[in-house]
Amino acid sequence: MGVKRTAGKPLGGKALVDAIVKHAEDKKAEDIKVIDLRKASAPADWFIVCQGEHPVHNRAIADSIDEGLAEAGTKAWHVEGKEDGRWVVLDYSDVVVHVMMPDARKLYDLESLWDEGAAASSAASAPKDSPKARLKAKLKSTMKQRKWKIEE
User: What is the DSSP pairing of strand 46-51 with strand 30-36?
Assistant: First the structure.
């Protein structure tokens, strides 16, 4: 994996994961899953996937994480989807947080997509226009933009 943008910041790696989970729990995020991607060819070392009951709830969860980590001196490298609130992504480089509505979470099924080795077989067997295939292509594109090594 490439250079970590969180290197040298107060929080990184497992400490960052633990802080994110705490802030998500503080806002009653549901079904929090931590996915360890360190052994996979992935755009981050960790994914954290959780959900809220409403887009406003998702924004509150994302705000809690973002503001709590900023107070600790760690800021997101990129934030996307906050306006809509259906799927908010907070990118801390080595940890990417997905705060999703239950229907989007079920549709994209990130947990099984990135489960050990499932990413390659799942996307390879999915039709090219399926949500999983589109997501895999978008993630590959992001990895190339960041100049991360992509293993086929």
Answer: antiparallel
